[in-house]
Amino acid sequence: MWQGDGEAAAAIIAGGLHSSGIKAQVQGLHPFGVAGQPFTRNTWAVCVPSSKAEAARHLLHQRGESHHIVSGTDDFSSEQVATLKFVVAGLFAVAVAALVIALTR
């Protein structure tokens, strides 16, 4: 329900939720399921039970964390979108370079 950069930030968010009576778990996420690979960004998430998600979202909105709140497991964080854009642009550049090389031979 919350995603951002840094384990420390995620731990602080989870601690705040715990202090408000909402059980929260910190989890490291790796785009494309690959940890430590070049051109990927590690993202951290804070998960709460679905029965407490609405209360947790409300609390995080009050604390100014609206920009890090995600609505479900199928959403992409802004960091993941940036990584996907970078990969697509890189693939496009490689395709153009290959085309130019093929045409000049």
Describe what this molecule looks like in 3D.
- The chain has one domain.
- The chain has helices at residues 7-19, 53-62, 78-104, and strands at 2-4, 25-29, 43-47.
- The chain starts with a strand and ends with a helix.
- Strands 1-3-2 form a 3-stranded antiparallel β-sheet, covered by helices on one side.
- The radius of gyration is 18 Å and the shape is rod-shaped.
- The chain is built from 3 helices and 3 strands.
- It is α+β, with helices and mostly antiparallel strands and 105 residues long.
Topology:
Elements: E1 2-4, H1 7-19, E2 25-29, E3 43-47, H2 53-62, H3 78-104
Antiparallel strand pairs: 1-3, 2-3
In brief:
This protein is 48% helix and 12% strand. With 105 residues, it is of the alpha+beta class. A 3-stranded antiparallel sheet has the order 1-3-2, with helices on one face.
